[in-house]
Specification:
A hairpin with a 2-residue loop joins β1 and β2. The chain contains 10 helices and 10 strands. With 239 residues, the chain is α/β, with parallel strands linked by helices. It is globular, with a radius of gyration of 17 Å. The protein has a single domain, classed as Rossmann fold. The longest helix has 16 residues.
Length: 239
């Protein structure tokens, strides 16, 4: 579905991603893990069209079976192609209600019946959001805001959903809930690209994983393989 070949990402004089090559097969959960500054978020921001200085190739095969080169495309184009992102830090609009935030995720759509149906689908995934549909986003807890950010991304009906640090700052019980939802989203046909610092949780849910260090892929394999790899255990899983 998505193939990244020799991707470089720059922020001014900082070379954040240094020629990585990765692949996200349709229908799978693929995770990028690594410490802060490893290049994980820069990679998915490049896919989403949020970074200007990018070299390399990002090819996406969409719903129609056609392959599209994404490098240089706008974020709006990505959404229309079937790619959505739940960003690090949630980035909900705090002055809008829960339902208004969800409708914002469907801004490219005109099918009102479908939008209403998908809002109900999000509420079925996250029952707490249904209970708070009238509340302003800024009044929600951190966990509820994360649920809202994921729900908003789903509202564009993406084929590929990218989740940037969905467990960041959440209590352990909420982390489990978020990863259960990721499994459910995937089981319903969405391809998932997951960026995470919580290596154990990410590898448990992933079909395939890439470990990044200072902008390079240093290890890759199935989630199960990397969970049992001594190098991964020592560096990311507390031994």
């Amino acid at each position: 579905m998505l193939k990244i070949d020799s991707l470089h990402v720059y922020y001014g004089g900082i070379h954040a991603v240094k020629g990585i090559t990765i692949e996200i097969p349709r229908g799978k959960i693929v995770t990028l893990i690594g410490a802060n500054g490893a290049g994980k978020s820069s990679t998915i921001r490049a896919i989403a069209g949020l970074v200007k200085h990018v070299q390399g190739h990002i090819a996406f095969t969409g719903r129609d079976g056609k392959e599209t080169e994404l490098t240089g495309k706008t974020p709006e184009t990505m959404v229309k192609l079937g790619i959505a992102m739940s960003p690090e830090g949630r980035r909900i609009l705090p002055h809008l209600t829960v339902e208004e935030n969800l409708r914002l995720g469907a801004y490219i759509r005109t099918d009102e019946d479908g939008i209403v149906s998908d809002i109900d689908m999000v509420y079925s995934l996250f029952p707490r959001l249904r209970e708070r549909s009238w509340q302003r986003g800024g009044t929600l807890s951190g966990g509820e805001q994360q649920m809202l950010a994921v729900g908003r991304a789903l509202m564009s009906r993406p084929d590929l959903i990218m989740l940037d640090e969905p467990s960041l700052g959440l209590a352990p019980l909420l982390v489990k809930e978020v990863f259960d939802i990721i499994r459910q989203i995937n089981s319903e046909g969405k391809t998932v690209l997951l960026v995470e610092q919580n290596a154990f949780a990410a590898l448990k849910v992933a079909d395939y994983a890439y470990i990044l260090e200072v902008g390079n892929v240093v290890l890759e394999g199935t989630g199960e393989q990397l969970l049992s790899d001594s190098r991964v255990k020592a560096a990311y899983l507390g031994g």
